[in-house]
From TrEMBL:
Positions annotated as ANK repeat: 200-232
InterPro entries in alphabetical order: AGC-kinase_C, Ankyrin_rpt, Ankyrin_rpt-contain_sf, Kinase-like_dom_sf, Prot_kinase_dom, Protein_kinase_ATP_BS, Ser/Thr_kinase_AS, STKc_AGC
Organism of provenance: Stentor coeruleus
Protein name (record): Non-specific serine/threonine protein kinase
Residues annotated as domain AGC-kinase C-terminal: 659-698
PROSITE patterns linked to this entry: AGC_KINASE_CTER (PS51285), ANK_REPEAT (PS50088), PROTEIN_KINASE_ATP (PS00107), PROTEIN_KINASE_DOM (PS50011), PROTEIN_KINASE_ST (PS00108), UBIQUITIN_2 (PS50053)
CDD domains tied to this protein: STKc_AGC (cd05123)
Domain Ubiquitin-like, residue spans: 1-72
Domain of life: Eukaryota
Binding site for ATP: 435
Amino acid sequence: MKIHVLFNNERIELSVDASLTVTKLKEILKTYTSLDIDMQKLILQLPTHKVTLNNSFTLSQYNISPATPLTLKQINARNSMGDMSRWVNRLVVTCQEGNLEKFYEILKDFERCKKNSLEIEDLKTILNTPLNGKWCCIHYAAYCGHGKILKELLELSADCNIITDDHWTPLQISCFQGHIECVKIIISHPLCNINKMTSERGTGLHLSSSCGHTQIVKLLLENHINPTLEDPSGRTALELAANMEIAEIIPRYIGQELLQKYKVNTECTERPLGFSGEVFYTAPWLINDKQVYLVLDTQNGNFNHYKTRAAYVDEELPDYSIAFTKIQEVKILSESIVEKYFFLISGQDIKLKYYTNFLDMTEEWTKRILDAIGFFRTFVPPPAKVQLIKPPGPEINEEGINLDNFEIIEEVGSGSFGKVFKVNKKYCDEIYALKSLNKVTLRQRKQLKYAIAECKILKTIRHPYILPLYWAFQSDTHLFMVLEFCPLGDFSKLLSYLHHLTVPQAKFYIAEIILAIEHLHSLDIIYRDLKPQNILLDSLGHIRLADFGLAKQNVTQENPAMSFCGSPAYLPPELLAQSGVWKPADVYCIGANLFEMLTGDPPFFTENINVLYHRIATATLNFPVNFNEEAKDLISKLMRRTPEERLTMAEIKQHLFFNDLNWDELQKKNVSPPFSPQYLNNVRSTEKVGGSMFDVKK
């Protein structure tokens, strides 16, 4: 087959066999690029995200065609930088102290550790990484009023609009503290959003006005901050004025602006023309991007978002409606997805993300919106409060599928967020599992995004050892997922019944799990929640990896997942250290699950969660007497404390523990499970522990 590889803006066309491994392809590319294999990174652009190709996989496993060009990037050789938090901590201390000389010394140390010139993206990552997940260097510099360090941070690509975990921007902090020099530095930055608010606080004008910082109020007004914006509690900066001078300055400024508008040439005061059209809308809670219809209503002063053009023509209410004067930010996003040019609209409590297939069209939309905002802020008196219209919930329905299509047979499980039912699809007598999740409970516990993530990921995956999602839809109160029904229960039931497995039994099940995780990693997806309760057994006794609520796409070592989540007994050390996780975290969990299969208990297990976390972070793994040596060696290498030192998927499959296993036959489901369906069904329906092995397959 023919494939195309893009490298340094040049197109390399090759004729190769689909069975070729990625490693072999890199060997061929070496003759064109002179790059060694370990210096090459091949990237495949999928519709939703990018995938870094795995060296051990074949091209056919990625469904590569001439219409899907690959991108080749050069990997820069660099030494390990150690724990990023160490660098962040050192820089934060100097930002608090205001010691500019020490600040430069730390940057030089960083440079020496890399044995290379300081690359802006690496430094940018450190400067914009919050210490312990809370504040970044720039927030501490703004809080302490160290203007020189603040200026250096901004010149070194610190984000001037970055928000802390307790909802402060650097400008808000400087205004609240009364550090006028810091305010001057921040608002002079070309990327500063002077009107930016957070979910709990108004603009810098609100904060400086309420704190009585008169000179900062004057400075912000001179730099054209919007004095009519309301903070999250619905109050303007004038209403918050702490002294009479501020109470006089703000209306005087507003009056001067009104007088100025009458001096402007009438040609410049014409109301902008309305504008409308179809664009694509994307959001974290959408499984698929939606084509929507946007209308710039320049007669009434509103930005309107309709689900379809027909909804607009039929005069239905828009899904979203925001007054132009309430829009805080409009910008084009620099996201590199083929033929998708994104723009973002931000209001006080909302962010709307759209894209078109052409850059000039995206630029036209942003220009039109900005023109409308400028006109209504300058020439039209503020209207009465406009209520923001929001849709009732995430849009995940699929046409033609709803609850009426299914007949509930029985409830088979329940949890904190909902229930699972065995259902029959009407008119075709097919059995499925229906997962019902309560939207109110999900929102209250901030779990809605995980439920939507599960839908998104499962819809894109088909693998013999991963539970397939067939349909997803919703009602006013619940989300529904229609999945394969696994009649033999989950793996925890089998472990509870037998206490532990023999080496051949554990080898079979952990190998099927490895194939499932390997497939996810080939798509740059990490699973993050591998445990017996999430491993289902299908009708033949093979495993099905389920519950993808914590899975995350587009995760690499350069782009790790930072959320603290998972089941305590299986958490990897790097998660406890809050240094970010990527694929080695799943490798650690494979080792932890294999340990439990062979011993009956998770590693380091204790009922005291603080002791458990301490053991995971510091303790040595202890194996029972007479434990299988090959299994011991494998588990030890899977659960190494340093992520980079753990085995890769290719190394796992080549380990002596799996010497007698045919991976290709296992992938095709040609290897019989160690337990028969009849035996597993008996296990599922009994509470007895330590059952008879009479039905175990030889």
